[in-house]
Amino acid sequence: MIPRKGDYGFDAPYVPISMVVGALPLLAGAVSGALRGEPVAALTMGVSGTFLLASAGSYLYTTRAGKLRAWDEILGGLALAGDERVLDLGCGRGAVLLLAAQRLSTGRAVGVDLWSAADQSGNALETTRRNAALEGVADRIDLHTGDMRELPFPDGSFGVVVSSLAIHNIPDAEGRARAVREAARVLEPGGRILLADFRFTDAYADEMRKAGLADVARRGLGARFWYGGPWAATHVVTARKPV
Asked: Which of 214, 151, 217, 141 is nearest to 185 (CA)?
């Protein structure tokens, strides 16, 4: 894996905090139940509390390390020539965007985001610029404040379009479909698209097919990309725009 020098925050930080907050009284209740001689209650609360703590651990590993390792492999598998234009939808603090930029020489990595700190801690355009400088790729990126449902780019502008855990934040199905259609629109003939998410990925694949993309496929990214457990497993949907 390419060493990382930037700080990429925590995805939806309220989620693991809620898990830990929920676990603590359960574990305290388990101890109390054991001391009172109530083994069933103690076991039930102990198992529940431990489960929540394990889920929080899985979540934190994914957001701080697992997703970076997964995307490092995904981007490495593209065998980029270095002159591509890469677009990251919902780039956040640059975890994926800057990994792509590190594989470019004359190309550009372009990020679009609305910079919501609820979806990612400390998410801000200047934070992403700072991370780009720390990674040594500030001269290879462009950042835009914009909505992925209405991208400010001409048709066929990018050789690669990626997105990681961003499209699901659009609250309605039609809005998510528009984002996928926009990704297909700005993709150049022969270009590739890779959308990773833990929800709605079957719908993304269907929308790609409707948009005329080829070789549409969906696959899981394994335990390192679980946001708490297999019920929140991340899948990546890939496709190619016909020449």
From this structure: 151
Which of 54, 83, 46 is closest to 160 using CA atoms? 83
Residues of the chain with pLDDT under 50: none
Angle at 16 between CA 169 and CA 93, to 5 degrees: 50
Give the pLDDT confidence of 33-91 residue by residue, as tens digits: 999 999 999 999 999 999 999 999 999 999 999 999 999 999 999 999 999 999 999 99
Domain of residue 225: give its range: 80-240
234 Cα distance to chain centroid: 8
Instruction: Tell me how far the alpha carbon of residue 44 is from its chain's centroid.
Output: 34
Instruction: Tell whether 171 and 201 lie within a shared domain.
Output: yes
